[in-house]
Each structure stands twice: as C-alpha cells, then as structure tokens.
Amino acid sequence: MVCNVKKYYPLSGEGLRERVSKAAFTLAEVLITLGIIGVVAAITMPVIVHKYRTNVLKNQFKKSYSVLSQALTLTSIELGGNLHEMFKDEPAGFSGAILFRDTFYKFLIPAADLKESTDIFKFAPYNKNQPSDSESATMGLGAYPGYVVLGDGSAITVLKNNGRLNVLVDINGLKRPNRVGYDVFLFVVDTKKDILTSWSTDAATYCSKTSTNSYNGRACTYYAMIDRNPDDDSKGYWDTLDF
Predict the structure, then answer these.
(1) Does the predicted model carry a pTM greater than 0.85?
(2) Looking at the domain assignment, is residue 60 inside a domain?
(3) Under a CB-based contact definition with an 8 Å cutoff, are residues 174 and 120 in contact?
(4) Rounded CA separation 72/76 (Å)
(5) In what order do the strands lie in the sheet with 184-189?
(6) Residue 235: predicted pLDDT
(7) Does residue 94 come out as left (phi exceeding 0), alpha (psi in the -120 to 50 range) or beta?
(8) What whole-number distance in Å separates Cα of residue 161 and Cα of residue 90?
(9) How far apart are CA 71 and CA 195, in angstroms?
(10) 90-133 residue pLDDT tens
C-alpha cells in the first residue's frame, strides 16, 4: 500500500509578508485600544485613590482610638478612678487637669517631649465653606495647646474645656489634610464613666458640611466611631469623605 504524504513548506517571500501583515495590529487599532485604556483609567483611578486615602485614615483613627482608650484605662487605675468627677473643678484650657495630662502622657509612647508649638493644631474646618481663620480653626476650643508626638506620627493634646477632659488627636500628625473630621478628632471623657466618647452626636450642628457653628466637627468623632455618614445613615462615614 502506498501512502500519499503531503509535504508542507513554510511560507517565504511575499507569502510570509502577507500572512504577517494580516496578523498584526494596525496603528489605528493600537491607538483606539490605548484610548479606551486611558478612559477606563481616568474613570477608575480617582475611585481607587479615594478608597486608599479613606482606608488609611480609617485605620489610623481606629489605632489612635485604641491607643488613647488604653492610656485612659491605665490613667484611671493610676489615679483611683472617677476621672470624670476628679477634675471637674479644674481651670479651663491647657492649664487645667495637669495631673491627668501628665499621667495620661506617661502611658503613651511619645517620639518627642511635649511641644509648645501650636502649628499642628491649626486645622481646616469640616465645612469647606467656613472661614478657616475663624474660631473653627481650633474647633472652638479657644486655645492652641501643646502636644506630644507618638511613634506612629500622631499628635495628641489634653486640655480642660466645658467642664470636661478633652483629648484632641491628629491621627497622622503633620500630614494632610489637617482637617477636622478627616484626620483631626476630639474625644472627651464620658460624664458617667472613664471611657472616651464623642463630645456630641448632634450632626446637624456639630458634624455638618453646611453648619457654620464654631464647634462644627466635634460630633464627627461619633460618626467616625460608628462609621456612619451623618447626612445619610445608609452610607459609611469614611467612604463619603470629600477631599
């Protein structure tokens, strides 16, 4: 039996060039593809960057709250408890509750000694349209107190205000945005027990992008803690920050 075997030979010359030409992309096709990639990137990159920024701030906030809460617990044990009652008659401002502040700082791990510089706590208000040179530049606290810087870069200060112990924290220190409700938060010692809580839960006045109250931003601590948007409780707090 004879088998007829066909032999195939590779293309050469004009035949090869014709096949390569048909298989390759044209310049127009390449440009269209790059254009599509560019459009998709332009749409998705801002979302990705925003998500990254808010996740960083959210995690820094959680860490700061944990560190400060632990320091408060140890301070309460050291001073015998009832911190919310112990210092109620102390002077207001940075000169008040010195024993509390010194003990509280002892249970933190600072990277530097107490700084008297005031620059770090001059911050932008939560409401972008509120003049930053108003009392909102200190969230209505009335003074620029000194602060300590921790090993993670966060900056913390303690003062007595409105009859309560206040702990003000910039969760990322000198890094931007240096804005209340974003990286600057005010905690207070609860009036009934020694825990850190928010100064208020009144969003309409104290955590609103339209309020011009000098205390605006103080209640944002509460909404950051429960991760709920003060204007729309179906959304998270951090995901809706407007940079």
Answers:
(1) no
(2) yes
(3) yes
(4) 6
(5) 148-149, 155-161, 164-170, 184-189, 196-198
(6) 94
(7) alpha
(8) 10
(9) 10
(10) 888 888 889 999 999 999 988 777 777 666 677 889 998 888 76
Q: Which of 214, 87, 106 is nearest to 159 (CA)?
A: 87
Strand partners, 161: 164
Whether 224 is covered by a domain: the verdict is yes
In a domain, 90, yes or no: yes
Domain count for the chain = 1
CA–CA separation, 189 and 38 (whole Å): 51
Residue 14 within any structural domain of the chain: no
Q: Which residues contact 84 (CB under 8 A, 6 or more apart)?
A: 164, 165, 189, 190, 191, 192, 193, 194
- Domain of residue 76 covers 26-238
Collect all residues with Cβ–Cβ distance below 8 Å to 203 and sequence separation of at least 6: 219, 223, 230, 231
Question: Which neighbouring-strand residues pair with 188?
Answer: 166, 197
pLDDT tens for 174-219 read 899 999 999 999 999 998 999 999 999 999 999 999 999 989 999 9
The two three-digit tokens of residue 75, written as one number: 């301070």
Model confidence over 147-185: pLDDT tens digits? 888 988 999 999 888 889 999 999 998 899 999 999 999
Q: Residue 184's closest CA among 213, 211, 212, 144? A: 144
User: Which token pair is 22?
Assistant: 């048909």
Spacing of C-alpha 173 from chain mean position: 11
Angle made by CA atoms 71, 238, 167, in degrees to the nearest 5: 25
